[in-house]
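Subject: Interface between my chains keeps coming out wrong

I've been trying for a while to get a sensible model of this assembly. When I model each chain on its own everything looks fine, but I need the whole thing in one frame so I can look at the contacts. Pasting all components below, labels as-is. Any help appreciated, I'm running out of ideas.
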Amino acid sequence: MSMETNQQPPLVLMRDMRVSFGGVHAVNDVTVDLRAGEVVGLVGGNGAGKSTLMRALSGAHPADGGQIFINGQPVIIPNPRAAKDYGIETIYQTLALADNVDAAANMFLGRELTTRVGSLDDAAMESATRKVIGRLNPNFKNFKTPVVSLSGGQRQSVAIARAVHFNAKILIMDEPTAALGPAETAQVRDLIKQLKSEGIGIFLISHDIHDVFDLADRISVMLHGKLVGTVNKQEVTTDEVLAMIIMGKLPTEVTQRDLASLHG
Amino acid sequence: MAQASEVAPVVAGSKPPRSLGSLYRSMELDTRLLGMLIALIVMWIGFDRLSGGLFLTSPNLWNLSVQSSAVAVMATGMVLIIVSRNIDLSVGSILGLTGYTMAMVQAVWIPTTLHLGWEQPYTFLVALVVGITLGALIGGFQGVIIAYIGVPSFIVTLGGLLVWRGLVFEIQQGQTISPIDKTFTIIGGGLPDGALGEVSWIVAALLCVGIVFMMWSSRRRSRTYGFPVRPLWSAILISVVGCAGVLAAVWVVTEGYAWPPLLAHKYAIEHHVAEPAGGLQIPVGLAVPVLILLVVALVMTLIATRRRFGRYVFAIGGNPEAAELAGINTRRTILGTYVIMGILCAISGAIQTARLGSGVTSLGTSDELSVIAAAVIGGTSFTGGIGTIPGAILGAVVMQTLRSGMLTLKVDSPIQDLVVGSVLVAAVAVNTVIGRRAK
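Reply #2:
Try treating it as a single job with all components included. I did that and got this:
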């Protein structure tokens, strides 16, 4: 893409990434990049390998091959903690919440605030949680109850709050609006635009092509574990991206008949 | 993310509660724990009625407290194990091995093998340190196999159940080891030295100060951040009821329970005290095992609720994958729960060995069942992530109450097992139904 013309190295470069599960190449020689203040949409059908690629970046499932560069420096991300140390935060599709503890305990899970004697400072954590979630979701009230009793939208708020509270530089959002109603979805969209303006780079995985077109600057399309291509949003139509997702054909290769067949 | 708006203070305490329900809610009590406490009191009264007043006597309640302590100490550790979705079937055997080893240290290795003599001032301490270290090592060994190699805890500790018990017989060909060091026997709570006497009132005072301090500090912290504060009347009510309970319990075993006449007579002669008519009245007071349990309960509650480690144990139980993705070192956490369990088994082993006055090979046999039952009756859920230390202690008391109550009623042993087994399943059924409704 146009990254060669840029002087600065990209915020994230994942080069020739490979992840296999028992002989199945879930991710096969995929290269993607992300710049500060940019949203890269990652799209593709089920099993295309989008989530697996991102799990390699978040440390949830280390890659079998390939290299990851952050600000041009090669890094190794063997586990989630390493990813967090590089400023990579992830909102998983499953939300990855501990259902039996409250919002504050989830938001600070693994990074608890403690008092001078090393005991948990629950009041300070609850206070911070109230502030962050209060901004994301003003209707959120149940700070004392285990998150299992919260609605889907509220749970999502907790997961998002956890990702944005710790000054992430790189944010991975895996279907962030899947469980949300229209109002909450709009809030998440606003949040993404705000985070982008703060210079955070965001990988956005979504099934919703309109979401991606609304929010992303560039779109990387995957099919059967391989990268079909990465396109600038301004230079393509939704139909052309759909052709990439379904047929694996780049806009330069696609014919009018192909596009017509998408709606047939 | 700095321009956060000020959190509106929620007014929970400022307006007067309207109904009994909201009155109850504003007290922020643990319903499950309260229910168990009520069930326990009902059982006590029931056994007392049925036995014609034999159950609610000071000696019986004192015995109940000592017998419950040994199981309760281990049950606090079992809570963490079960909360993190594991199990430990080896606790009875670890208790047996550590208890027997501690007996060996003081009755064979120090006096005979090392020729250092009997009743040395350090004997009890060496025995304890050896026993507790051994417990931690055994727990750690099992923990490593479970957490790092990935063998299911059921299998590892089932193996441990057999291995550690087998080792007990290998140490000294199954002999009974005695005598136990005099200082060491204090741990067991036997009279005359194993109870605190009037000193119990100091323990009571400390407990009361602790209750009031807890109420005060939680209110202060909530107010600092503008959270809903537990209403003052509720804090005072809980403090008063809590302190009254502590004082009543201590009164029963101190003022309400004197040394047996023979023991008091012996004491009077040895200390040249003039005996009044009707004999010398020496208060028994809290037993040392109960004191040990109080300390263990405090430490374990702090670990479970106020430390990162405890938070991680619960998070792992709630969602192991989420805990891992949050960057928690889940393996080290699991290992930690087994080390703690091993230490608690050794403490309980010390109590039971000291109580018996000798090291026996069968010590702690089938204790794993009582300990698991205590934790589960106390609200610990096998689905993971749910359980409390005070609940497990109450569970241990419930179990012991059943045993001791039926003994008072002269119920046959098979019928006892039948009742205890049924109560166990019924208690978990109730917990499950409550848990389902809470969702």
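Reply #3:
Confirming on my end. The CA atoms of residues 16 and 29 of chain A lie 4 Å apart.
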